[in-house]
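so my prof wants the structure for this chain in the C-alpha cells format not the other one, which i didnt know existed until like an hour ago. anyway here's the sequence
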Amino acid sequence: MSAHRFWLVVPAAGIGQRMRADLPKQYLPLNGRFVLDVTLGRLLSCGPWAGCVVPLHRDDQWWHTSASASDARIESCPGGAERADSVLAALHHLEGRAAAGDWVLVHDVARPCVHQEDIARLRSALADDTCGGLLAAPVSDTVKEVAPGSDQVLATRDRKRLWRAFTPQMFRYGDLVAALQQGIREHPDGITDEASAMELAGWHPRVVAARTDNIKITVPEDLVLAEFILARQAAG
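here's what i got, hopefully its the right format
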C-alpha cells in the first residue's frame, strides 16, 4: 500500500445558475444545513486527510456563515472562473506541503450523497496506481447521439463502453497540476473534470464502480431527491 498522503479539494466557486435560486446551490438548505456543510462533513468523516482546501468565488458572501468555515481541518482559497481554474488554485495553495506523489481527491461540492464506502474503495483500489481514476457507474440507458442544434438522431451508441463519471476523482498531486496547467493552456474548453485533463495529457484514468445514488445537485428537484437519498442511507 502506498505511503503517500491524501489531500481533499472541494471546488465551491460556482454560482449555480440552473438552480434558479438567490444564492449558489452549495449554500441552499439540505436537511437544515448548507449543502456545502453536508458534503464536507461526509468527506471529512472518511479520513485521514492531510488537509482539505475549498476554493471559493471571490465575491462569496456566505462562507463565513457556514459550519465549515470554523472547522480547523478546512482551508479556503480564492477560486477561478472555471472549475479547472479553481482546482488548480487549490493545488497551488498546497504548494510546498503536498508532495508530487501525494494523492489529491477532488469532489463536487454539490454531491452530498457520496457514500463513505465508495470513497474508501476508491482510495484502496488506486493507492498504488501510476495514474489514478474516478468513481463511476456503467450507463444503463440507451444512448442516442443527436446532431448539434437539432433533434435528429445520428446514431445509437454502444452503452457497454460508456460510464457515468462521478466524484471524487483521485490523481497524483504533481501529475494533476501539470495536466491542469497544460489543459487550461491548450484545451480551455475541453476540460470538464480532472479525468478529462489527465486524458488530454496522455494518461488513462481507471474507473472504480460506485453507487448510483451519488447524485449531483443541479436543478431544484435534485434537493428533494438528495434529502430522500440521505434519509435512506441513514436508515441503512
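also thought this was worth mentioning. The chain has one domain: 6-234.
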